[in-house]
Amino acid sequence: MPIIKSAKKRVRVAHKASVRNSKTKRSLKSALKNFSAKPSNGSHATAQSKIDTAAKKGIISKNKAARLKSRAAAKAKTSKVKPASTKPKTTTKSAAAKKPAAKKSSGSSTKKS
Known about the structure:
Structural class: mainly alpha
Helix content: 55-70%
Mean pLDDT: 85
Number of strands: 0
Largest sheet: none
Distance between the termini: 62 Å
């Protein structure tokens, strides 16, 4: 058992992180098992989402995430399931709806001394 206050806090923080990471790992594994058991559009999208989440949180590496997603896409293709799209859909309307640039003030600014 640690004696120093900062070491005690470190134990608490590490425990919280391990619980959080184990939940993410467990949800990733279950999503992958569900997809491999019965491939469908919904399960493929869920599996990809869980893989991306785990990679973003640093639980799995980017390379492992890419490998898992590639394998899932290959399995979806062989089982005649349309792979989930990884690219966000953009429309011309949303691109045109961006805020206009702020106008520059043409007045001279005077500094009081």
